[in-house]
Amino acid sequence: MHRLKCTVQYDGTRYAGYQVQPNGHTVQEELEKALTKMHKGRRVKVTASGRTDSGVHARGQVIHFDTDLHIPASNWKRALASMLPPDIHVAHAEQVDNDFHARYDTTGKEYRYFVWNSQEPDIFRRNFTYHIKMPLQLEAMKTACRLIEGEHDFTSFCSSRTDVKGSKVRTIHQASIEKNGDELTFVFKGSGFLYNMVRILVGTLLEVGRGERKPEDLKAIIEAGNREAAGKTAPPHGLFLWKVDY
User: Fold this and answer.
1) Beta carbons within 8 Å of 75's beta carbon, 6+ residues apart
2) Structural domains of the chain in order of their starting residue, each with its CATH number
3) φ, ψ of residue 181 in degrees (nearest 5)
4) How does 90-118 read in b/e, with b if 16+ C-beta sit within 10 Å?
5) d(CA 87, CA 127)
6) DSSP letter (8 states) at residue 12
7) What is the rounded distance in angstroms from the CA atom of residue 62 to the CA atom of residue 6?
8) Between the CA of residue 94 and those of 5, 31, 89, 153, 193, what are the distances in Å?
9) pTM exceeding 0.85
10) Could you please report the per-residue DSSP string of 40-105?
């Protein structure tokens, strides 16, 4: 038996999230189905760096699985491409030590959230950007981003449906916004993220952008330690798991 590590990209539009569940079509299910077929019906379990919600996309999800097939790592990419649907793609495959763990060995993650800020929609980006017609105050949102950076208890930015029992302290190394024409890219790099954390951060920053909150309110929201203090959860389709660090 040896262990393979793969970087996986997917368009989450038609999936009920990454993780296998009883009543929804998922990315993990498609990956395991393809691998089981390659292993002549023997079930192969896939472990990911973390799960993504229904409608969320990934450019850099990382998985590992164990196999007894003697296929060169470079050929796995091509073999899986022929068995996976067109909205899931294995971008890279390599053999790793048998003690490598896609979830527990992560040192950090990067998420990006895309907003289309224009009166007119871009229908070709409708599954990958959140369309907001109202002009947004970019500088105010950038000021608010600086208050997110650093080590904080992010309880206010965690869904009440979380199953995290321990500390909600996380370190955000970068919170920034890039503007490219009508598209805004919110970039978050951190040690780890709580359930719905990025989408709640974006929803709160957008309230700052609309003038419904002041940038300095972020400090009080963090200190409140209460989900009710933060803004609405931004919709899933603008969110990408961009990169996982090891």
Assistant:
1) none
2) 2-96 (3.30.70.580), 108-245 (3.30.70.660)
3) 65, -125
4) beebeebeeebebeebbebbbbbbbbbbe
5) 13
6) G
7) 6
8) 5, 16, 15, 36, 26
9) yes
10) TT-----EES----TT-EEEEEEEEEEE-----HHHHHHHHHTTS-TTEEEEEEEEE-TT--TTTT
Contact 17, 56 (CB under 8 A): yes
* Residues 51 and 19: beta-carbon distance below 8 Å: yes
Q: DSSP label at 21?
A: B
Residue 53 annotated in active site: yes
Residue type, 169: V
The contacts of residue 220 (CB under 8 Å, 6+ apart) are 229
Active-site annotation holder among 53, 68, 97, 153: 53
Tell me the two tokens of residue 110.
């990067």
The SS3 assignment for 134 reads coil
Can you tell me the distance from the alpha carbon of 89 to that of 190, in angstroms, rounded to the nearest whole number?
Answer: 25
Question: What pairing do the DSSP bridges indicate for beta strands 47-48 and 57-67?
Answer: antiparallel
Taking only the tens of pLDDT, the chain with its 246 residues reads 999 999 999 999 999 999 998 889 999 999 999 999 999 999 999 999 999 999 999 999 999 999 999 999 889 999 999 999 999 999 999 999 999 999 999 999 999 999 999 999 999 999 999 999 999 999 999 999 999 999 999 999 999 888 778 899 999 999 999 999 999 999 999 999 999 999 999 999 999 999 999 999 999 999 999 999 999 999 999 999 999 999
CA distance 48 to 7: 10
